[in-house]
Amino acid sequence: MSRVVVVSGSGRFADPWHPFPATSAALAGIAHELGHEVVIDEDVAHRLTDAGDADLLVLNLGNPEEPDADEDERIRAGLTAHLAAGRPVLAVHSSVTAVPLTGATTEPFGGYWHRGVTMHPEYGEAWVLAAAPSELTAGIAAFALADERYSFMEVDADVVPLLQHEHDGLLHPLLWEWSAGRGRIVVDLLGHDAASYEAPEHRAILARAITSLLAP
Questions:
Q1: For residues 102 and 54, is the Cβ–Cβ distance under 8 A?
Q2: Total Cβ atoms within 10 A of residue 67
Q3: CA-based angle 33:150:172, to the nearest 5?
Q4: Are 4 and 39 in contact (CB under 8 A)?
């Protein structure tokens, strides 16, 4: 049994658009069903400054409206240390918008929300397509769910999409694997609200991601 910590957006890491308590509970439920010890931690800065005994960090948070240079530096250093120790991260949905985590660069997640460029169509039914073959998506060719579809993300050239969607005549990545330091990362851009986690295919993919990230 591993210790999974869901870091849930609150305080300056909450926003008016994302119901983090509900989505964090859904993520925690998936990890719990796999038999793991699960904690939901809303003290984002404290947990990310020092991840402590977390075997897996699940990041489910938003971007602060106002920067806090000292706190943001401590957060980036703590996340870097967690990954450098070979411990994994599952980064979900709006976590890739959080400048304190990314510094508005493609590290550590392999991609980020580029303000003024990245967008999403109106929330609604999203048709999701499998892309490159992966154990995370095996047997899942396509599925529909209620969600936002992040589009025109800034992603590293080496990112290999595992899920994608079509918008404006282009295919946009929704799921990929990455690494930083010795730590493995899965980025899942789905998960706007609790409805996203009602889709059995999405739940299966997240369960596989958690299992893969915690594998020896």
A1: no
A2: 12
A3: 100
A4: yes
Distance CA 114, CA 43 (A): 26
| Phi, then psi, of 145 in degrees rounded to 5 | -160, 165
Reply yes or no: is the peptide bond before residue 108 cis, omega within 30 of 0. yes
Three-state SS string across the chain, please?
A: CCEEEEEECCHHHCCCCCCHHHHHHHHHHHHHHCCCEEEEECCHHHHHHCCCCCCEEEEECCCCCCCCHHHHHHHHHHHHHHHHCCCCEEEEHHHHHCHHHHCCCCCCCCEECCCCCCECCCCEEEEEEECCCCCCCCCCCEEEEEECCCECCEECCCCCCCEEEEECCEEEEEEEEEEECCEEEEEECCCCCHHHHHCHHHHHHHHHHHHHHHCC
Per-residue model confidence as pLDDT tens digits over 71-113: 999 999 999 999 999 999 999 999 999 999 999 899 999 999 9
Mean pLDDT of the 161-176 span = 99
pTM exceeding the 0.90 threshold for the entire prediction: yes
Domains of the chain: residue spans and CATH: 3-113+174-214 (3.40.50.880)
- Of 216, 11, 213, which Cα lies nearest the Cα of 92? 213
